[in-house]
Design brief:
Length: 497
């Protein structure tokens, strides 16, 4: 485990700082400077990890953020860089060349029950590789896709490094004039142009970058019925509010949860022809649900996610369901001013009791609108009574109204994804889902949605930091600065360890 001082360097201060610096300098007295220029030119090392995937090992003092931060020592960060990273936010040319990312096939396109390759040799190789998913030859360079296995085949081809989508451009008769209620930013306009050319996109922008408004704009431009599929009732309520506020034809829109739509009654309802289907927080889907949703009859489709990776390793499912990837990294969005970089602080406590007392003291110091996350229903209900604030969970009716009508709210994981509060001052994580990086990325996104400079505070015991430190990697890999301080039970930082 990374030590408290080793992680952030802010939790404690040695009174003999100059002596410490002298000790460090003494290690370099006999250093050969011959290779320094090479280090500054390429301050990282690459090690193979799998096909089209490498470890990128970087000293922690180097401001290098690329790919997924997989693990960390006191001295080094270990990033995973693969094809998905490159598709979402293209790698620098020198890194891409060294990684050696290359598709298995020169071309592989799936459409209308067939998969077409660039040559007979590639067709034959694919038949051997995907034998259980194809039925036989459909032409000189093509194979028939086995009935009911198209989504699985697309996912396999994606895992092998190819994007097998055939563009289906938006036709002019399906278009309406732009709405006056939504104005696109430059990067959103570029995404709209990609959608016009392809008819299917996966939009992978950080929280608060405007994925929902981009989708509303697309829906306003497309004639016909729209279907939005979301992971929670909270998000359904939020989408319905925004549709009523920004859309000229709200009756064309239907919003349902993934759970409802794949249930028996919902599934019968959901398979009707739809002009545009929007899959929100698409990474959230259970693996068994993807193939069922892929059968929805829709002319155009959009997938949305701020964290397009799956902790079960099936990231290819996200891309298979959505379409051509459109991405921009958190650092890039922060640089152009599209999103805010939150102030992140971790407070450490010796026990759960000390952490609970620290939370009580902390909330007395916080002003403005505060959202406290607590995964455990039992702990959430207990805190609700002790703090005198509402606890919003899966059984809460009219969740968005409860959240908006109170300055401070405790929320279970139903508020993890997509929840947008424009004037949120602070997010406090009290109880969480172990080492889930995805959850951490989503929760920090709640304060990034705010129009004001908000703070993100994480309360952990020493044991939780030891066991679940990986969840913090989701923030560090995006270049966010994290302070790690010793909580003293009064909601303030102590002297550290």
């Amino acid at each position: 485990m990374v030590s408290l001082t080793g992680r952030m360097g802010e939790a404690s201060v040695d009174g003999n700082e100059n002596s410490s610096h002298d000790d460090i300098a003494s290690h370099f007295e006999g250093m050969d400077p011959t290779h320094l220029s090479a280090f500054f030119e390429t301050p990282y090392a690459l090690l193979p990890r799998g096909r089209n995937e490498v470890w990128v090992i970087v000293p922690r003092f180097v401001p290098f953020y690329l790919g997924h931060l997989e693990r960390q020592t006191d001295s080094y960060n270990y990033f995973i860089v693969n094809k998905y990273v490159d598709w979402i936010s293209p790698l620098p040319a020198d890194v891409r060349e060294k990684v050696g990312i290359s598709p298995l096939f020169e071309s592989a396109k799936v459409a209308n029950g067939t998969v077409v390759f660039s040559s007979r040799e590639e067709r034959d190789r694919a038949q051997r590789r995907y034998g259980e998913l194809v039925d036989g030859e459909a032409g000189e360079c093509s194979l028939c896709v086995r009935k009911g296995r198209e989504f699985e085949l697309i996912a396999r081809i994606i895992d092998d490094g190819n994007l097998p989508f055939v563009p289906s451009p938006v036709v002019s008769r399906d278009l309406r004039p732009p709405p006056r209620s939504i104005e696109l930013r430059d990067y959103q306009q570029r995404a709209w142009e990609t959608f016009l050319r392809t008819g299917m996109v996966g939009v992978y922008w950080p929280p608060s970058a405007g994925k929902t408004f981009f989708s509303l704009y697309c829906g306003e431009r497309i004639n016909g019925n729209k279907l939005v599929i979301v992971p929670s009732v909270t998000l359904r309520e939020q989408w319905e509010e925004r549709i009523l506020t920004y859309c000229r034809f709200p009756d064309e829109w239907q919003v349902h949860t993934y759970q409802y739509l794949t249930g028996r009654k919902g599934w019968v309802y959901g398979v009707g022809n739809t002009a545009l289907t929007i899959f929100d927080e698409v990474h959230h889907l259970p693996a068994t649900t993807f193939s069922r949703l892929a059968t929805i009859k829709t002319t155009y489709r959009i997938g949305l996610s701020a964290s397009p990776y799956r902790e079960d390793g099936r990231t290819e499912y996200i891309f298979a369901l959505t379409g051509f990837p459109i991405g921009l990294g958190w650092h890039d969005m922060i640089t152009i001013g599209a999103v805010r970089s939150p102030d992140v602080t971790v407070y450490l406590y010796t026990s759960q009791h000390a952490k609970r007392q620290g939370l009580k003291a902390l909330v007395r110091t916080l002003t403005g609108r505060v959202l406290i996350f607590c995964d455990s229903l039992r702990k959430g209900q207990q805190l609700s009574q002790e703090l005198g604030v509402p606890f919003v969970h899966g059984g809460t009716v009219d969740r968005m109204n409860v959240i908006r009508s109170h300055r401070m709210v405790i929320c279970s994981r139903v508020g993890d994804e997509g929840l947008s509060l424009p004037t949120l001052d602070a997010v406090v994580e009290y109880d969480f889902l172990g080492g889930s990086r995805r959850q951490e990325a989503q929760r920090v996104g709640r304060v990034m949605h705010s129009s004001i400079e908000g703070v993100h505070i994480i309360l952990m015991t020493d044991e939780e930091l030891h066991r679940f430190e990986r969840r913090l990697y989701a923030l560090e890999e995006q270049g966010l600065s994290i302070r790690c301080l010793r909580g003293n039970g009064a909601g303030q930082s102590g002297s550290g360890e």
